[in-house]
Amino acid sequence: MKAPQFHVVPIKTTAGRFFEDYSIGQVIDHAVPRTVSGGERALYHALYPARHALYSSDEFARSCGLPQSPLDDLAAFHIVFGKTVPDVSLNAIANLGYAQGRWLRPVYAGDTIRSSSEVIGLKQNSNGQSGVVYVRTRGLNQRGEVVLDYVRWVMVRKNNTDAPAPETVVPQLAPVLTPDQLVVPEGLDLTNYDFTLSGEPHRWSDYEIGETIDHVDGVTIEEAEHMIATRLWQNTAKVHFDATNRADGRRLIYGGHVISMARALSFNGLANAQMIVGLNAGAHANPCFSGDTIRAWSEVLDKAETSAPGVGAIRLRLVATNAAGAFRLKSDDGKYQPHVLLDLDYWALMPM
Amino acid sequence: MKAPQFHVVPIKTTAGRFFEDYSIGQVIDHAVPRTVSGGERALYHALYPARHALYSSDEFARSCGLPQSPLDDLAAFHIVFGKTVPDVSLNAIANLGYAQGRWLRPVYAGDTIRSSSEVIGLKQNSNGQSGVVYVRTRGLNQRGEVVLDYVRWVMVRKNNTDAPAPETVVPQLAPVLTPDQLVVPEGLDLTNYDFTLSGEPHRWSDYEIGETIDHVDGVTIEEAEHMIATRLWQNTAKVHFDATNRADGRRLIYGGHVISMARALSFNGLANAQMIVGLNAGAHANPCFSGDTIRAWSEVLDKAETSAPGVGAIRLRLVATNAAGAFRLKSDDGKYQPHVLLDLDYWALMPM
Amino acid sequence: MKAPQFHVVPIKTTAGRFFEDYSIGQVIDHAVPRTVSGGERALYHALYPARHALYSSDEFARSCGLPQSPLDDLAAFHIVFGKTVPDVSLNAIANLGYAQGRWLRPVYAGDTIRSSSEVIGLKQNSNGQSGVVYVRTRGLNQRGEVVLDYVRWVMVRKNNTDAPAPETVVPQLAPVLTPDQLVVPEGLDLTNYDFTLSGEPHRWSDYEIGETIDHVDGVTIEEAEHMIATRLWQNTAKVHFDATNRADGRRLIYGGHVISMARALSFNGLANAQMIVGLNAGAHANPCFSGDTIRAWSEVLDKAETSAPGVGAIRLRLVATNAAGAFRLKSDDGKYQPHVLLDLDYWALMPM
């Protein structure tokens, strides 16, 4: 047999979108919907030391007014996010930020999730080589209900540097969700919350704004684990999987893997910060690689009441590091310290 | 306590069958039936970058006329195959080939799969030390329906080299399934196929015979992953698990792991080649080891219409390599190039 | 932004209980109940070469009188055990032993498991620095039925060495469960047992007391696998996850991972020792690390009839080693040989 001749046929693979391919108001329906089951839930618990009782036990979830234990909120985020990668960040130079993220409905086993993004901002860089794209992404279930909604902006390369710069549109994004913007899942009632089964006695009123919590434990990360996780979310970014992709032969770990690891570690001290309902901001301060030992600490940034029975909201900074005792976030020049991997600002719900 | 004395009792473990243990017409019902669930489906997506929408979303599968999303066809193959290992290939010197493989019914969560093989060919090698065994293996579900049917032949050692050579029987195996032999799953209807959700716009009519597709992406393989996958299929071949088994201390990766990885990578360019219905031939050209970065390319070998609404069949060569840009299959002497791991010839179903 | 100031607020994380924190009769309800699904079952089969048919096939389980295939008995054990770690063994110096372990009810997909322990013994060490704590742990399902019950004792550090020594109470623990203490699952009937589907022809009457079985196969262990497994059981002991925790930079593998690996390997020779119903004793003789190749051998210690149709009980010693041919258990001085990782004494049920 001869080596096949590579025919000149219209190329079937896609190189992804470049900066000039986006326009304000453009809606991109992302591919590959995903039905989740107990399998995704078990894998989430196998990949992260996740112990929040509401996500571990159907019985506990029912005692809190939910029909069953939902898929972890971050797993829902990863699924929604993963679908956007081929359309939004395949040619991204940098993932610049998140804002206005809201979890609107829990995801349950049997639900089918898809994602859709709208371009809400464009700003070409002065070098003419790249630009910033802002998208509002929605995750939807099989009934068309929005389960998650967030804004993300990325720096994307231009392919054709002669393409004209679009009109600059930079969306006004509040740095923090106000408490009235948070959506408490229908039926949630924490008045009969079982603090023994949840693992810690601390309730909403026990936390003070400004308080910091060292989550103590560390987890050393392996290549197989982050790839298994990232594939599970059908995130296709090459840099996570292909050791030949970078000059140093290292695989960059998906930032969401660090988020989930840090959040799971935060159980130790925040066992009752059960449901994530808001993502205010997030920065992947430094890259994470296999062999890093992840640690986490949190800072209470704000607190608010909600109208749901027994349910308080707590705003937390979650910091992941790859060194013990690394409690300093930034240097005097405002840059993140080298051991900081993640700086995440989110709202969670707790029993009052 | 003293060290236990090893009694002389009939040995309970089995050394597996040798060439002289097979006879034409012999039927071997393989052990350990397996019930699959959402767990196997989630693990398949965690181990491979599998994104074909029909296998990811129950809603998408229903829009194609199926009751729900089936287990990936290759997962079904691995489960059926895995059961045959203790009876067919424990003393195999080489896995020589596959032919006439047909997927006859999708496997769904809740199904219980078992395997049965019939010996259909025997040919002792001229050296008298080994021989080739041909088996036709069937995978069956809990209703006794055949879900998969394929022929495989392996070279197996003789244990007793004095055992007489059996009469030589070599089955006539057509190198390719004809389109009329392919079974389209009952109810499959791709007339309302959603090309946005599936991830690519290319339909059956967009592919040309002779066309080749470089699937672009690469995945570097880890020991933990291939062992997790191979165990999931209850494949017990020592060489995949025991680093002390080979002189070089390396674990040989199950060929099926390479098949699934390459097929999943082929999404990029063949996102709409949804269902695998025929396996014409397959060769594991070179061994694969942990650390290899798998890439894949495909060649369109043939096309055919089917009687099902909107459903076309496409015959594809799927080649996996462990090097970038390795598009040459064989050397001038007809041998596979050293970077070729897999050469698979299969039929898939696509929207017309 | 400035580095956060770590406020002086009551510490939210817990350092775990110390020896002086336990008292006789104290009942500890452990946190984080867990609902299991097909996901946990699939992962168990992916992590261990588990092939016992009763745990693999719903159809096979039904043919044995059970409603469906249960979660592996050792997975049930790991889930129950994992919950006790934060309360019992976070400050443990050594896991000293198990006794009187009984599986009382199978765990099925959909069940929610929690754990509760009662302190039944205390004995301060003569050095005044530590003591031995004996607990009886029960695993319960969502109906409050006990699914598993066992005694474990650990050596725990004192935090306050001035705390007075408690009155010494050492429970009387029979070294072996008597056959009448074993609980056969309701409905179990092995009179129509299918020895072809189970994988081996050997029935209860084929095994002789004193007989030993080399299970032949080996599995080389990876970091990712034991961490995935240990996290799945929500076991939080740092030493399994944090490579910076020990001076040698190695992660100690959870002893239960070795138990499950050895038990799965014992399929080869004990395929019909289906259900584990009693744990008489267990010692983790030497630590296990990534890269070890686990092998196993068994010794038949006893046999007994049961009142259930076709069901016999067999008492087995299961030994895991990290070397081939390591069939000697202890040295002349009574110490375990360096290659012995596990010495487990259990009762299983077999077809008669």
Automatic annotation (TrEMBL), chains A, B, C:
<protein>
    <submittedName>
        <fullName>MaoC family dehydratase</fullName>
    </submittedName>
</protein>
<dbReference type="InterPro" id="IPR048274">
    <property type="entry name" value="MC_hydratase"/>
</dbReference>
<dbReference type="InterPro" id="IPR016790">
    <property type="entry name" value="Thiol_ester_hydratase_Rv0216"/>
</dbReference>
<dbReference type="InterPro" id="IPR029069">
    <property type="entry name" value="HotDog_dom_sf"/>
</dbReference>
<dbReference type="InterPro" id="IPR052342">
    <property type="entry name" value="MCH/BMMD"/>
</dbReference>
<dbReference type="Pfam" id="PF19315">
    <property type="entry name" value="MC_hydratase"/>
</dbReference>
